[in-house]
TrEMBL record:
<dbReference type="GO" id="GO:0003857">
    <property type="term" value="F:(3S)-3-hydroxyacyl-CoA dehydrogenase (NAD+) activity"/>
</dbReference>
<protein>
    <submittedName>
        <fullName>3-hydroxyacyl-CoA dehydrogenase</fullName>
    </submittedName>
</protein>
<dbReference type="InterPro" id="IPR008927">
    <property type="entry name" value="6-PGluconate_DH-like_C_sf"/>
</dbReference>
<dbReference type="GO" id="GO:0006635">
    <property type="term" value="P:fatty acid beta-oxidation"/>
</dbReference>
<dbReference type="Pfam" id="PF02737">
    <property type="entry name" value="3HCDH_N"/>
</dbReference>
<dbReference type="InterPro" id="IPR029045">
    <property type="entry name" value="ClpP/crotonase-like_dom_sf"/>
</dbReference>
<dbReference type="Pfam" id="PF00378">
    <property type="entry name" value="ECH_1"/>
</dbReference>
<keyword id="KW-0576">Peroxisome</keyword>
<keyword id="KW-0443">Lipid metabolism</keyword>
<feature type="domain" description="3-hydroxyacyl-CoA dehydrogenase C-terminal">
    <location>
        <begin position="604"/>
        <end position="690"/>
    </location>
</feature>
<comment type="similarity">
    <text>Belongs to the enoyl-CoA hydratase/isomerase family.</text>
</comment>
<dbReference type="InterPro" id="IPR018376">
    <property type="entry name" value="Enoyl-CoA_hyd/isom_CS"/>
</dbReference>
<keyword id="KW-0413">Isomerase</keyword>
<keyword id="KW-0560">Oxidoreductase</keyword>
<keyword id="KW-0520">NAD</keyword>
<dbReference type="InterPro" id="IPR006176">
    <property type="entry name" value="3-OHacyl-CoA_DH_NAD-bd"/>
</dbReference>
<dbReference type="InterPro" id="IPR001753">
    <property type="entry name" value="Enoyl-CoA_hydra/iso"/>
</dbReference>
């Protein structure tokens, strides 16, 4: 008998139970076990019908993703499901938890589907750069039609039991004891002589070709660069044109293409990396967590308000503090406006808006923060101001309260030293807009306690963020790498590229926008003011004036003023090349005596990305990031690095570190610039023929 799949009979019903914690993934042993248990059930004359279900927390949640990329082992899942469907007995799937991917495909190989009301089912393979490869693209359209199947397969989102019942996927929704309900249902079906219902034998209406091309059109923008969604559409189209066997063959071909693609390798890396970032090496799993039942936020500006929304949306009460009532009123109004805009789009009900708003209170007095469990400071980026705030927090907050700063540049250790409890101080660096961006860089200071780290990492998940733990340095992981890339982008323009050319290369690589469109979005005035400040305070070390300063001086601050590096038409965020910018660049080049040259797209890509990889390697060596995957996740969730490239460090591995290192060395030889000095870690890995993933 298999360890992971058991067979037993109860009340004339044979139960096939998968027990492979944590999520009953359909690895080789489970697939073989399913066939063995099926044979037992078929041979068991006392069993009038068979039920397939999962032990523990869920029905199988899919193929074992760790097996992808290894040599496939028979029996393959599509064959297992075909065998289930062809079995001589009535087969019922009884679903709880999350029947995803191959799990949902198993249910489609059964005659009837019963689900607990809390269960969800879906085909999320597209998120792994794959398509449902065990008959899902062929059976689902036969069951619910091509259009609904496209939504489910290309969308990849799990659906609730009630919704699945309406769609005709689930036959019956039950609550309470699933096993008892499943046995009763199976007996009922057997008593009623219910017919077998092989989904593969259902007919699916032939759709006109435009259904599929229209669908492609409809996702073209959102899924730009991705391979899998378009392969999913092709597979569903095959279901409408071919018989089941031929359709399944086509599905297999498309699946295999995706499985062997670099995109799927990258997306699978991201799946596991996203889970790994939550596990902090050196911090025990059972580290006690502090209870966070109420949060204080200092500052009701755009950042403070955005941060507050994360907690309110997660049902955690927030007290917001400002110096002036007017600022509080403005902040509260902005939060309400944002929620109402979401409600208008149909993504929230008005009751939910009111529930969130009812969790928000405001105050002008620090003393009112005496009962909060966590305070996040989101005030002006100035060390003196921050130290004053933390001094006040130290005075008023209760022992054990966590004191967090949202600083993006300042030294968390220095801030912590302004309190008598540096072990309770941590950075929580939200990315703008804070209620939208999924990344949260949690910055560990020298003294931050394990308990505080563990609590904040858990809390990140609770408020829907991906928390990555980083160490202290200027810009932390994300912005430190970003600054290096921006510097290259500017140099490339100085040397002869146009801003639009640089942006296009990075956009085509898959980033949501290029460096200059990003600068226009953030506002050119921000960097300009910082540089101006440095020119006043430290003229000897201040950065040279460049064409970006010239643009900022003309109040070309980006999107918000209708023009920055690019021009923007009223109400349109499409960047258009600007003559003013071109003239300023020319002027700057002339002043500097630069002989311009043609800059190739390849050079743009290499310089903008390799500099990130080199800085990433330095960050790893310094221990500011713990693992390469932490850097990948920071860049994916903080800056929209394309998931299908896997993050900058995974991408570098896929190019080959020897190649990356050689080019970085060449750039260093040519420029002598510090940013191109190869990181010793990169040098070592390249020499040893290793990857960052081998660390
Ligand atoms: N294969 C291997 N491991 C898996 C897995 C899978 N399909 N699904 C989850 N796991 C692992 C996770 O890596 C994690 O491991 P660690 O504890 O070591 O980190 C553990 O199971 C628990 O997972 P989560 O932390 O994600 O737990 P959760 O409760 O938050 O979520 C879940 C559970 C909804 C099932 C979520 O894990 C999930 O979405 N899993 C992936 C589902 C999926 O994509 N299935 C399709 C697979 S591809 C397929 O089936 C192709 C086909 O057509 C044959």
């Amino acid at each position: 008998m298999s360890d992971v799949v058991s067979y037993q009979r109860e009340d004339e019903i044979g139960l096939i139970v998968v027990d492979n914690p944590p999520v009953n993934a359909l690895g080789h042993a489970v697939r073989q076990g399913l066939l063995d248990a099926l044979d037992q059930g078929l041979a068991d004359d006392g069993a009038r019908a068979l039920v397939v279900m999962g032990a523990g927390r869920t029905f199988p949640a899919g193929a074992d993703i760790r097996e992808f990329g290894q040599t496939p082992k028979e029996p393959a899942l599509p064959d297992v499901i075909n065998r289930l469907e062809d079995s001589g007995k009535l087969l019922i799937a009884a679903v709880h938890g999350t029947a995803l991917g191959g799990g949902m495909e198993i249910t489609l190989g059964c005659d009837y589907r019963l689900a607990l009301d809390s269960a969800r089912m879906g085909l999320p393979e597209v998120n792994l750069g794959l398509l449902p490869g065990a008959g899902g693209t062929q059976r689902l359209p036969r069951l619910i039609g091509a259009q609904a199947a496209l939504d489910a397969i290309v969308g990849g989102k799990p659906m609730k039991a009630g919704q699945l019942e309406k769609m005709g996927v689930v036959d019956k929704v039950v609550s309470g004891d699933l096993k008892a309900e499943a046995i009763a249902y199976a007996r009922q079906l057997a008593d009623d002589n219910a017919p077998r219902r092989k989904v593969s034998e259902l007919t699916v209406d032939k759709e006109s070709n435009t259904v599929f091309s229209d669908y492609e059109q409809s996702i073209a923008r959102k899924k730009r660069g991705f391979l899998a969604p378009f392969h999913c559409i092709k597979a569903v189209q095959a279901a409408t044109e071919l018989d089941f066997a031929a359709g399944q063959k086509r599905e297999r071909e498309l699946f295999t293409e995706l499985l062997n693609s670099p995109q799927s390798a990258a997306q699978r890396h991201v799946f596991f990396a996203e889970r790994e970032v939550g596990k902090v090496p050196g911090i025990a799993k059972d580290t006690p967590r502090r209870e966070i039942a109420q949060v204080g936020i200092i500052g009701a500006g755009t950042m403070g308000g955005g941060i507050a929304m994360n907690f309110l949306s997660a049902g955690i009460p927030v007290k917001m503090l400002e110096m002036k009532q007017e600022a509080l009123d403005k902040g509260v109004a902005l939060i309400r406006k944002n929620y109402e805009a979401t409600a208008k789009k149909g993504r929230m009900t008005s009751e939910q808006v009111e529930r969130c708003m009812s969790l928000l209170t405001t105050t002008l007095s620090y003393d009112d923060l005496s009962d909060v469990d966590l305070v996040i400071e989101a005030v002006f980026e100035n060390m003196k101001v921050k130290k004053e705030v933390f001094g006040e927090l130290d005075r008023v907050t209760k022992p054990g309260a966590i004191l967090a700063t949202n600083t993006s540049t300042l030294d968390v250790n220095e801030i912590a030293q302004s309190t008598r409890r540096p072990e309770d101080v941590i950075g929580m660096h939200f990315f703008s807009p804070a209620n939208v961006m999924k990344l949260l860089e949690n910055v560990r200071g020298e003294a931050t306690s394990d308990e505080v780290i563990a609590t904040v990492m858990d809390l990140s998940k609770r408020i829907g963020k991906v928390g990555v733990l980083v160490g202290v340095c200027y810009g932390f992981v994300g912005n430190r790498i970003l600054h290096k890339r921006q510097a290259q982008a500017i140099s490339l323009v100085n040397e002869g590229a146009a801003p639009a050319q640089v942006d296009k290369v990075l956009y085509d690589f898959g980033l949501p926008m290029g460096p200059f469109a990003m600068a226009d979005l953030a506002g050119l005035d921000v960097g300009w003011r910082i540089r101006e400040g440095l020119r006043e305070s430290d003229p000897a070390n201040a950065p040279e004036r460049n064409w970006l300063d010239a643009l900022a001086e003309q109040e070309r601050w980006g999107q918000k003023t209708g023009g920055g590096v690019f021009d923007y038409a009223e109400g349109d965020r499409t960047p258009r090349p600007s003559e003013v910018t071109a003239a300023e660049i020319e002027k700057y080049r002339a002043e500097q005596g630069i002989d311009t040259r043609e800059v190739s797209d390849t050079e743009i890509l290499e310089r903008c990305l390799y500099v990130m990889v080199n800085e990433g390697a330095k960050i790893l060596e310094e221990g500011v990031a713990m693992r390469p995957l932490d850097i990948d996740i920071v860049w994916i969730y903080g800056y929209g690095f394309p998931v299908y490239q896997g993050g900058p460090m995974f991408w570098a591995d896929s190019i080959g570190l020897d190649k990356v290192h050689a080019k970085i060395q060449q750039f260093h030889d040519e420029t002598g610039h510090d940013d191109w000095k190869p990181a010793p870690l990169l040098e070592r890995l390249a020499k040893e023929g290793k990857r960052f993933a081998d660390l």
